[in-house]
Amino acid sequence: MKNYKKIIEDIYNDVKQVDDIGKVANYIPELANVNENNFGVHITTINGEEFSIGDADKKFSIQSVSKILTLTLAYKLIGEKIWNRVDVEPSGNPFNSLLQLEADLGKPRNPFINAGAIVVCDVLISELKNPKEDFLSFCRNITNNQSLNYSDKVAQSEKNTGFRNIALCNFIKSFGNIKNDVNRVLDFYFYTCSLEMSCKELSEIFLYLADDNYKNDKEETILSTSEAKRINAIMLTCGFYDESGEFAFRVGLPGKSGVGGGIIAIHPDEFCITVWSPKLNPKGNSYKGMLFLEKFTSNTENSIF
Ligand code: GLU
């Protein structure tokens, strides 16, 4: 594994010492119960080499990182028609913003802000018999990881406090871009966000975005090369809310973050790397996660640019 091991160890030890100016997300009360000092990194290469450091095996709430998985399944199920329901433009707005929807007549800017992911969940509800079970088994089958699961606690906690998401879903429904019952859509959305995975599991599950020849153990492909290209492109331009430009500028890899403090980043044809550190910067991205990845692509001189 090149010299990744030594480089990751050095950066990890360096970033560990940095004073963390971030704050753990607490607008979903259950997320505030995490130990804020957790810090883990895991890299998996397309050749199957892996390296971990820190809290890389502890499961955490992946939150918006799950938006890649819901989009992947919806894209598989309805193909290019998905883009009639959700756009592929950066929003330049916070992840839970209602602002642009009025002007855009209920078509969310992209699938990685809450509005877009809620529409993607609506598509999945129309397409799947048992959305929660079917989505979970889709995720489990990517890496044959039967231990993947939702957290009822986190999903319920978000349900009790998710007023903005409830507003978003109703607002989009008023434009006709939500086809199913809003409570069903929201319940499914909250569950998808509550998925729990470790850095190691995340790096393994998203290898299909790095490896054109990726097949699961049933010899099934997850996405075609061109579909994976599109999802990577949206990650690069929209994966970090209104800080997507900053992430591309500092790190130079397609990626996606979640308010649980996880970030996954893809180097196409090379690897998937995951960092988890729960304290978030004001834009909702892991403070140390971004710092780690910036140093990683700078020190290895290996980004997509
Ligand atoms: N479940 C969170 C919400 O909808 C996800 C936010 C995120 O991770 O960006 O507010």
Could you write a compact summary of the structure shown?
It contains 13 helices and nine strands.
The CATH H-level superfamily of the largest domain is DD-peptidase/beta-lactamase superfamily
Please describe the biggest sheet, giving its number of strands, its sense, and whether it closes into a barrel: 5 strands, antiparallel
Alpha plus pi helix count: 13
* DSSP strand content: 5-15%
Strand segment tally: 9
Bound molecules: glutamic acid
Under the CATH scheme, which class of the largest domain?
Answer: Alpha Beta
Rg estimate, integer Å: 18 Å
Question: Structural class of the helix and strand makeup?
Answer: alpha+beta
Total tally of structural domains: 2
Question: Which features characterize this protein?
Answer:
single chain; 305 residues; alpha+beta; Beta-lactamase; five-stranded antiparallel sheet; two-stranded antiparallel sheet; 13 helices; 9 strands; 46% helix; globular; binds glutamic acid
Structural summary, described in words:
With 305 residues, this protein is α+β, with helices and mostly antiparallel strands. It contains 13 helices and 9 strands. It has 2 domains: 4-63 and 197-299, 3-Layer(aba) Sandwich (Beta-lactamase); 65-193, Beta-lactamase. The strands form 3 sheets. A 5-stranded antiparallel β-sheet has the order 3-2-8-7-6, with helices on both faces. A two-stranded antiparallel ribbon has the order 1-9. β6 (255-257) and β7 form a beta hairpin. α5 packs across α8 (163-174) and α8 (163-174) packs across α9 (182-193). The structure holds glutamic acid (GLU). Glutamic acid (GLU) binds at residues 63-64, 95-96, 114, 158, 165, 193, 258-259, 284. The site of glutamic acid has 11 residues, from loops.
